[in-house]
């Protein structure tokens, strides 16, 4: 889904270019040599095994030396960018904006990770010379150097250098230490030199408490809370007591199930964890919805889900369970009382409690693109924002993957960029701020590389101040036909079929959310083999 293009000066001669060329040669040598590793048996194999161990150690030292070289290059790049932005009279509080994002793109990491790598490089090269030397010689790994930097974060420059000399001053001893030993020695030295730093560090850690949610396998999620120890232990103890109480009274659920359900009920205020009123966006094909197809659906913010799971959710049935069967939901160990049969079409109180709103988003079958909306508004209306978020799923900056927080005009609004789905992309807060730094450019291209043709998946090309270009293609959506052009697009690859996006977009009247979301225009579909029933259903959906 991501592509990289070097800057125009990448092939220029000079010390930096020559050094980069030498590193690239090593990469090629290692790639070619991987196919020619020796093999054998008997005594010869024993000799070769010894050589392979020597090779593994040498490569480990090479990785460490490369990490040290990366740190030095990173610190130099940051200083150079800081100086150039200062000469350009960038405001002091905005100096070095976008530098961490450029580091992240170069290392194929998220901007958050890029910021940590930048901070690590600056500290390592300017404040911890012994650790840097050990890393350069291959005596420790990048991770263990990171541990030393992390454990001295609250110390003054003078104390940090003293800890660095005490722990990493003897490379022979440092090389024998494992992760826990390095942490223990660094913390011990830090506590001895500055006891108050530990108190400051604890206060800082408490200020960074948060709750996060990330996908887990099998349509589950990890809800994680980083809390002060007293609060975290208290929450767990309360859930444990409630689980023990209900188990003692005959509840048929497992202890972990009760704790999870109790957490949901107490946080949301619902009487039953499974009777929540929720709005779920489902992106799915008509074949999955109506034809029993196995093409997965997509829940924006989570990812792909099984087709049957999605159909169960729409029907109001507990996903993944057969009709009439509920496992572990008998709260008193006895069968629920069977009430009188309800007349057809009449909603029971339980049905009302289980209301679900399904927002239907349909893709053009031949290209896999969501049908376009448009608006003259400066800000993206809520409905159009949902539309873009469903298409992009996560931050569109390459290798980021963070949740979408901002809707960004690819071509800035002040430069005439329209507020529509073609010119919009979802970004996290950090990437959107980095993109506003001087020298950053972005444009929309189609799968053939032409500007805003949109004959294939939505593709954005971002160019950094150094001239390096990175392309991000919207991930494929459910229902895309094979060869329709979904997924990564590079060079001469392009999706075939109907041109959607800019051609399908339409302008609306006044700047209101209702009008911006009112129209989903029909698109001519050629070469789309369907049955008569499918055609009728799709036409009804488009007309609605």
TrEMBL record:
MF terms from GO for this chain are:
endonuclease activity
Here the segments flagged for biased composition (Basic and acidic residues) are 313-338
**Entries under InterPro entries matching the protein:** HNH (IPR002711), HNH_nuc (IPR003615)
Q: Where is this region: Disordered?
A: 313-355, 475-524
Q: Where is the composition biased (Low complexity)?
A: 489-507
Residues forming the HNH nuclease domain are 383-433
* Keyword entries, A-Z: Endonuclease, Hydrolase, Nuclease
Query: According to the UniProt entry, where is the signal peptide?
Result: none
Q: Does the keyword Nucleus apply?
A: no
Protein name, per record: HNH endonuclease
Organism, per UniProt? Arthrobacter zhaoxinii
Starting at the broadest rank, the lineage of the source organism is: Bacteria, Bacillati, Actinomycetota, Actinomycetes, Micrococcales
């Amino acid at each position: 889904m991501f592509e990289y293009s070097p800057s125009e000066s990448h092939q220029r001669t000079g010390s930096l270019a020559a050094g980069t060329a030498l590193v690239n040669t090593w990469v090629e040598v290692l790639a070619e040599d991987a196919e020619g590793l020796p093999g054998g048996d008997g005594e010869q194999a024993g000799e070769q095994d010894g050589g392979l161990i020597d090779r593994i150690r040498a490569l480990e030292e090479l990785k460490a030396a490369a990490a040290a070289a990366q740190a030095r290059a990173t610190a130099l790049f940051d200083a150079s960018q800081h100086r150039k932005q200062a000469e350009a009279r960038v405001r002091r509080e905005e100096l070095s904006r976008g530098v961490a994002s450029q580091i992240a793109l170069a290392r194929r990491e998220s901007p958050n990770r890029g910021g940590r790598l930048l901070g690590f490089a600056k500290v390592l090269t300017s404040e911890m010379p012994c650790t840097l030397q050990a890393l350069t010689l291959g005596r420790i790994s990048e991770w263990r150097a990171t541990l030393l930097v992390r454990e001295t974060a609250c110390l003054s420059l003078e104390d940090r250098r003293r800890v660095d000399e005490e722990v990493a001053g003897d490379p022979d001893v440092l090389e024998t230490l494992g992760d826990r030993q390095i942490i223990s020695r660094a913390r011990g030295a830090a506590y001895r030199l500055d006891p108050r730093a530990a108190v400051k560090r604890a206060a800082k850690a408490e200020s960074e408490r948060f709750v996060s949610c990330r996908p887990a396998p099998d349509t589950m999620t990890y809800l994680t809370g980083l809390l002060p120890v007293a609060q975290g232990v208290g929450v767990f103890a309360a859930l444990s007591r409630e689980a023990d109480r209900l188990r003692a009274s005959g509840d048929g659920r497992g202890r972990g199930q009760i704790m999870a359900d109790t957490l949901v009920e107490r946080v949301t205020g619902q009487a039953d964890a499974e009777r929540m009123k929720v709005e779920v966006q489902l992106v799915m094909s008509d074949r999955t919805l109506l034809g029993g197809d196995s093409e997965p659906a997509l829940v924006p913010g989570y990812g792909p889900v099984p087709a049957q799971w999605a159909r169960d959710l729409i029907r109001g049935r507990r996903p993944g369970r057969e009709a009439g069967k509920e496992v572990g939901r008998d709260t008193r160990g006895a069968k629920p009382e069977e009430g009188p049969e309800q007349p057809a079409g009449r909603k029971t109180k339980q049905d009302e409690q289980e209301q679900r709103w399904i927002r239907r988003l349909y893709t053009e079958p031949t290209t896999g693109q969501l049908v376009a909306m448009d608006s003259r508004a400066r800000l993206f209306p809520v409905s159009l924002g949902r539309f873009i978020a469903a298409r992009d799923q996560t931050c569109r900056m390459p290798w980021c993957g963070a949740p979408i927080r901002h809707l960004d005009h690819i071509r800035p609004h002040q430069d005439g960029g329209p507020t529509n789905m073609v010119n919009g992309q979802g970004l996290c807060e950090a990437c959107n701020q980095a993109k506003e730094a001087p020298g950053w450019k972005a444009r929309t291209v189609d799968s053939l590389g032409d500007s805003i043709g949109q004959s294939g998946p939505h593709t954005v090309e971002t160019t950094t101040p150094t001239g390096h270009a990175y392309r991000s293609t919207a991930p494929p959506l459910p229902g895309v036909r094979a060869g329709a052009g979904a997924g990564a697009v590079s060079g001469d690859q392009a999706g075939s079929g109907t041109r959607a996006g800019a051609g399908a977009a339409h302008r609306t009247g006044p700047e209101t959310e209702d009008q911006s979301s009112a129209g989903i225009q029909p698109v001519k579909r050629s070469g789309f083999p369907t049955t008569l029933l499918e055609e009728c259903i799709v036409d009804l959906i488009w007309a609605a």
